[in-house]
Amino acid sequence: MLADEDARNTTNGTSKAHANGKSRQPPSGTGAANGTHKSVVARNGLSKSRPPDEYYGHDREEVTRLLIQTLSDMGYHSAAQNVSQDSGFKLESPTVASFRNAILDGAWAEAEQFLFGAAISGDVEDQNGNGLVLAPGADRNVMRFWIRQQKFLELLEQRETGRALMVLRTELTPLYQDKQKLHFLSSLIMCQSTEDLRSKAHWDGADGRSRQILLSELSKCVSPSVMLPEHRLAILLRQVKDDQIGGCLWHSDAASPSLYSDHICDRHKFPTEDVVELDEHSGEVWQVVFSHDGTKLASCGSDKQVIIWDVPSFRVLHSLKDHESGVGNVAWSWDDSMLVTCCQDRHARLWDATTGACLQRLERFGEPVSSCVWAHDNRSFITGSLDKNRSLVQWNLSGEKIYDWASPHRVEELALSPDGRWLVAMDHENHIHVYNFGTRDFEYKIDLKVRLTSVSISQNSRHLLVNQKNGIAQLIDLVLREPVQTYTGHKGGDFMIRSAFGGADESFIISGSEDGYINIWHKVTAQPVERLVGHSPRCNSTSWCPTNPCLFASCGDDGKVKIWSNEDWRRAHMETMHRPQ
């Protein structure tokens, strides 16, 4: 959460020599110029020795200030001072430095004076002399609300309830900001302990990082020409790397690209070779899925069993056969110690992935159980079913119902975002239903006008991949609620065909196809990368190893599971790889 003292260098009447209990000169490698130490200060944007000019097409002052900030971030404070002195450029003005220090010292009245113009020097005022120059769209009153909120929370932390209540009534409420937030803040007065306050407010206290977090949010509202965004050069370098990765058609290296040279991956390292074929299944194989740590692979299908394979030897660890019908879906727990199998016999089963023992069999559903995802606490899971009376239900490890969404639609496939925010249910028709998993509230529904066959969510929790019966896969922005990319070239049909994210930095989209091919596209550009002969007649599912960008698995109606990599991987694992008996 963003969070009384009206005298500088004190916090709520208590002397405080350093911000957040720490020295403002951080040790090497841990500092940050915009927040944890007092910066070298002078008139912002003015040179002592030369007018601004260009450095290879870039503004010299901007480059120099970025260097000063970065050197300070890295703990090289003497070097930062030397660069400032030699160049004549300063990181920020005395006013900005004073504003920063007022926030870190808990001098809230002084911070507001700098924000609104009192004691402001002209080099950082807006044109009307009203205080710090703000970024477009920033609101001074919102910033003041954040400052007073921190003041309020720190008073509560010190058990000065009367003063905190006065701040709430006379300083926060008159700003007429978010009324729901005001109600929430008022409820914190009832907290019985400091630990209870911090827990309910999601706030780590005056001696934690709360002031630094507040300063970070405030700095985003100030014009970057006045107050550089935090770690600006590091962010720019990250963008350069991301652009180079995005332009690499064969990206297969999980390591961060070097800054010394332009990034490009060797096409021969891309996984296009069928290195292992596994044929222990006696019928169609409907799904393959790697464990989160990449050390195991599970496959299931029409032969009523789930096989757990060791990676990279691909020898059978367990064969889970206590199913009465075909198994259509398998879900690994987040720690890979358990998995849930969803069966056409209308049961979902919980298994110990280490011993192969069946731990629980859920009560019988009215229709087949189609899908499962695990909650991030690793102590519960959510099933999707074609049973309209129990289509979306959360269960604990004892097989007891925790929550029933009482959803009116049947569920064929589920996805839960890695950050725990989005729960997406695909119905048996044309719709995706999006829930807030934390609150369990229904958020929205999208009608894609065509039958859907699978859904999955990216590791950054932002994008939903939807495969469709018409041979089109769409990437949908979960926040904007609209498609951002389309992938074509594979063949759809009446059966479940699964597409997925994969590769280094999730740079690719991979999908099975009704014609048996495996199709791989570049995620950003949607450019086809590979079209591999996979299975006959149908490739049902693919899964990219989460820990090895040069390894993925596929399965099909031919009863085979195929492992794909490159010649380097084959040579490295030749002695340990699975051999047919």
UniProtKB/TrEMBL annotation:
Keywords: Repeat, WD repeat
CDD domains: WD40 (cd00200)
GO biological process entries: proteasome-mediated ubiquitin-dependent protein catabolic process
Domain of life: Eukaryota
Annotated WD repeat ranges: 278-319, 320-361, 532-565
Chain ranges of the CTLH domain: 92-163
Regions of compositional bias (Polar residues) in chain numbering: 9-37
One GO location term (cellular component): GID complex
Any Pfam family hit: LisH_WDR26
Record flagged with keyword Repeat: yes
Disordered, as annotated region: 1-58
Identification of the protein by name: Uu.00g093880.m01.CDS01
Species: Anthostomella pinea
